[in-house]
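[Meeting: bench + compute handoff]

Bench side (C.D.) handed over the final construct sequence. Compute side (W.E.) agreed to return the predicted structure before the next meeting so the bench team could plan truncations. Sequence as handed over:
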Amino acid sequence: MSNLLKLTPTPPPETSQPDPAKLISGQPVFTTWNLEEDGTLFAGIWQSTPGKWHIAYDEWEYFHILEGVSVLTDETGAETRLTAGDSYIIRPGFSGTWEVVETTRKDYVIRL
């Protein structure tokens, strides 16, 4: 088994929606191209159409916004506007909301 993973061509996408109990507004549809999943490390490309939902992180996530506009709001109400070219790390314990204002696509790496 190689330690090198080629990321192209991408696998077929999976689609989903936020848990209805977490949904605040809209009817966002998530499209995810999972490039790596080994039980503790997940990487790929994620896209969402507009909407807003509650989030809570138990894991680390690094992401880079490829296109679109989203607003990440923490539990104190502090907002961070996410646009193409932005890169962030979300630490375990973060909770708040994710709002997709314009369809957003990001690449991500999640570590449990």
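W.E. noted at the follow-up: Residues 21-111 form a domain with the Jelly Rolls fold (CATH 2.60.120.10). C.D. will use this when planning the next construct.
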